[in-house]
Write a structure and sequence with these properties.
Elements (H helix, E strand, L loop, with lengths): L1 H21 L6 E2 L2 E2 L6 H13 L3 E2 L3 E2 L2 H10 L4 E7 L14 E12 L1 E6 H7 L10 H6 L8 E4 L6 H12 L6 E4 L3 H13 L5 E5 L4 H4 L6 E4 L18 E2 L10 E2 L5 E8 H6 L1 H9 L4 H12 L5 H14 L1 H14 L2
Parallel strand pairs: 1-3, 2-4, 8-9
Antiparallel strand pairs: 5-14, 6-14, 7-10, 7-11, 12-13
Amino acid sequence: MKRILFVLLMLSFALPALADYDKPGKGVKVKPARATWNTGYFQEALVSTGLKELGYKVKDPKELQNPLFYQSVTLGDVDYWTNGWFPNHDGQLPKGAYDKIEKVGYVIKAGGLQGYMVSKKEVDKYNIKSLDDFKRPEVKKAFDSNGDGKADQTACPPGWGCEGVITHHFDVYDLDDHINPIKAGYSASMADTLARYNSGEPAFFYTWAPNWTIFKLKPGKDVMWINVPKIMPKESQKAGEDRMTVSGIEGAVTDPLKAGFVVSDIQIVANKEFLNANPAAKKFFEVFTLPLGDVNEQNTRMEDGEKSSRDIDRHVQEWIKKNQATWDGWLEVARQAAK
């Protein structure tokens, strides 16, 4: 009887220690942010779920425009987000930001790809390699759906960062007389592009990754990434000029591909004071990474109507279950970092 009581007594001391090990973030409130584009919601929800499993009390994310987020995280008003695109976002950071913030890990290395895509059937038929090919009369005619004599391109809505780059391309490559950029709402325009493609018509559009478009239209099978004629960056792109040409892109018409947009790494950005005070969270940020295809697939589910908070939470739990060993491994190394 005494032996049993002794064992129970020892267990009573051990259980709190075990609980503390499993929940190194217990008692810590975390203030995440997220970007305004919904293709980044899934990553934020996964990371928040991981922190909750580590014991952190994670508030609902504050949705912020890029410059406001970087100002807020520098000041410590929010702790982190999963939506950093670098080097694309470098110009949006306040002066001295890197004294206060840190980029941690890679959500998707080289995942922030942008560029122009064309239906593979037409790429093969007309030997399309770059935007310059849309100056050829037979190519313009094939992609002219409204009879104005120009190829129709699904582009970016007014106010988007990509709109400025596309406008720059039209200027420096002299495309105004050859291509008509459609700048309506992107989702509606791309839905129309997809419908026309499915009916056998050509497709020509701007897109980025992660995105549902390159899940429904497979690079290399349905569509191909095409080049800009030569790399001629905007002033704001010059710091990332060496990353506007990229190798190893599936479905590119050439290797390397002259994308004309800076190819970015998607990374977590966090306040340094928060990271220093929370080694478990920092380690989880460092090891957390996602396959681009998984994000494209989830984004497609959102585009197909599964876009409520409840839907996204379900997507998160399904992804964790499918990748349970990897997930548990991330949590374990995060717990070890807090010892």
